[in-house]
Amino acid sequence: MPLPAMTHSSAFLLPASAPSPSNDAATTTYALVVLNQRLPRFAPLLWARARLRLCADGGANRVFDGMPELLPGEDPAEVRARYKPDVIKGDMDSIRPEVKDYYSNLGTNIVDESHDQDTTDLHKCVSFITRDLPVSDKSNLCILVLGALGGRFDHEMGNINVLYRYSSTKIVLLSDDCSIFLLPKTHTHEIHIEKSIEGPHCGLIPIGGPSTSTTTAGLRWNLDNTSMSYGGLVSTSNIVDDDIVTVTSDSDLVWTISLRN
């Protein structure tokens, strides 16, 4: 029996005035998570598109400091009041006391989970979203994560591990330079490339185990029942040639693509 198909698109990064070749942005429910790294340039755009906005612990500092920096023509106090997270969640070891008090006074829900040291702040936020997001149908849910890349390598790997742990949920890790998401082996994948904002460089990396067979179409150097593993071949520095890339694999894969400045 053929595998079910899953589609992917970065249309959420297109300017609000730009038409998208796919209608994913119109049908998807977005939740936004901000981690404790510098905000990317498109943070205000994604904030406006999100149904729910969470800061993971020190991510609240980044919103408090970074949103006024991204909108230098506006009054900083008005920017901070407008970009108020719905929830701040985590072990509360990084958020500054004055930032916590500021958002608490504005009505942000502060959820202290300092008792839980076995999961990362991103894991805590994803668990909260998948459990408590007030929508009846979560099948079109996509969680966008800012600040998941850069900084300490163990943090980056912990964030990628969340993709693997929540393989049935669409989660996209974003920085100014690239996006990363999981292609679970339970599906074939059709990735719609938004060439005005992403590419051409991309990569496919097996996670959780080697791939004995991965096949792609739409890349400069396609894979044809190719084996990939650490210590062997991984598809890095590949190039997107077509508007749609298809991927089928017997292993979960991490897909990454560069973002244009």
From TrEMBL:
One GO process term, biological-process aspect: thiamine diphosphate biosynthetic process
EC number: 2.7.6.2
A Pfam family recorded for this sequence: TPK_catalytic
Domain Thiamin pyrophosphokinase thiamin-binding: 187-253
Leading EC class: transferase
Catalytic activity: thiamine + ATP = thiamine diphosphate + AMP + H(+)
Recorded GO MF terms: ATP binding; kinase activity; thiamine binding; thiamine diphosphokinase activity
Keyword terms: ATP-binding, Cytoplasm, Kinase, Nucleotide-binding, Transferase
Record localization: Cytoplasm, Cytosol
Gene Ontology cellular-component annotations: cytosol
Coiled-coil annotated spans: none
The protein's annotated pathway: Cofactor biosynthesis; thiamine diphosphate biosynthesis; thiamine diphosphate from thiamine: step 1/1
The keyword Metal-binding belongs to this UniProt entry's keyword annotation: no
Cited function: Catalyzes the phosphorylation of thiamine to thiamine pyrophosphate (TPP). TPP is an active cofactor for enzymes involved in glycolysis and energy production. Plant leaves require high levels of TPP for photosynthesis and carbohydrate metabolism.
Similarity annotation: Belongs to the thiamine pyrophosphokinase family.
Protein name: Thiamine pyrophosphokinase
Native organism: Urochloa decumbens
